[in-house]
Specification:
By secondary structure, the chain is α+β, with helices and mostly antiparallel strands. The chain has helices at about 15-20, 25-30, 50-60, 70-75, 125-135, 140-150, 160-165, 175-180, 190-200, 245-260, 270-275, 275-290; strands at about 15, 35-40, 40-45, 65, 90, 105-110, 115-120, 120-125, 210-215, 220-225, 230-235, 265-270. Helix 4 packs across helix 5 (about 125-135), helix 5 runs antiparallel to helix 6 (about 140-150) and helix 6 crosses helix 9 (about 190-200). The radius of gyration is 24 Å and the shape is elongated.
Length: about 290
């Protein structure tokens, strides 16, 4: 009978010193069930984001704060158009002399205590600070998606201009100013926000979000983006629309909208990411054809 495999002894993030104190040998650290995240840091081979963050913080200097994309993730904010396989983003004081590692991306800035919070026991930048940090590092369309999500969760709308005002001179302020007039708490999804940014940059009229369509007093549906005066609407189809039940309901609703005289355009994230010019051109053509006379 074969000998059962020896289970790994690394229960969570630790450095070499912590391993020695726990009686874990170098041979045990080379176990297939243990992942080496940096020169001196180890964690289980299958580890969630929180464990990866904790592993990075083991070797972080005093004053380190989780920030940028990692902070956004901890706050539950989705940042579209940015690769998800990111190192942990950490902001450290300006006078710190440290380098990036494969498991961490350092940002050098002073983060006052009022701009930090504790989340899952970890010091992280506040939503306000996270937002202005992202303004300096992600595309405007991505920042709009984050702004829409924050508004939808009840973040005060008048706080955004205040953040911009007190951040004068920082990188990202210009992007933040460009994005704010487009923000809308009614956005249905992050990629829908990206689509709206494309339309804004192209100079197309601002759509009505979550527009309710009726015909003869009968409810036909609530649509993602609409230009009622042109009788044009756009639906953004996320993954949920691939489910058979949802797909069938979408077709029935679309038939009703078309019969009521609406032009219906439907796009997916593949369209918005892969062929944005064609998406904008299609919407522009529909609005031109449906121009009020």
């Amino acid at each position: 009978m074969p000998t059962p495999p020896v289970p790994p002894r690394v229960p969570g993030p630790l450095d070499r010193r912590g391993a020695r104190e726990a009686g874990i040998t170098d041979w045990q650290l080379r176990h297939a069930g243990v992942r080496r995240s940096s020169r001196d840091t180890y964690l289980p081979a299958v580890a969630d984001e929180l464990a990866q963050i904790q592993a990075v913080l083991l070797g972080a200097p005093d004053g380190a704060v989780i920030s940028h994309l990692t902070a956004a993730s901890l706050w539950g904010l989705e940042v579209p158009l940015v690769p998800r396989d990111q190192p942990v983003h950490v902001t450290v004081p300006r006078n710190v002399r440290r380098r990036h590692r494969r498991d961490r991306r350092l940002h050098f800035s002073d983060v006052p205590a009022p701009e930090t919070r504790r989340r899952h026991g970890i010091v992280v930048t506040s939503p306000s600070r996270t937002w202005i940090d992202l303004a300096a590092t992600v595309p405007p369309a991505s920042l709009l998606a984050v702004t829409d999500q924050m508004l939808a969760r009840g973040f005060p709308e008048d706080e955004f201009p205040a953040i911009v005002a007190r951040s004068a001179g920082r990188r990202g302020v210009a992007t933040a100013r460009q994005v704010l007039p487009c923000a809308d708490r009614l956005a249905g999804s992050p990629m829908e926000s990206v689509l709206r940014w494309l339309l804004h940059v192209a100079g197309l009229p601002r759509p009505v979000l979550q527009h309710v369509v009726r015909a003869g007093g009968r409810f036909l549906g609530m649509v993602d983006l609409a230009w009622p005066e042109h009788r044009v609407l756009v639906e953004f189809d996320g993954d949920v629309h691939r489910e058979r039940r949802v797909f069938v309901e979408d077709l029935r609703r679309q038939n009703g909208l078309v019969l009521a005289g609406w032009t219906v355009l439907r796009f997916t994230s593949a369209d918005v990411r892969g062929r944005p010019e064609q998406v904008v051109a299609a919407i522009r053509a529909a609005l031109t054809a449906g121009r009020p006379r």
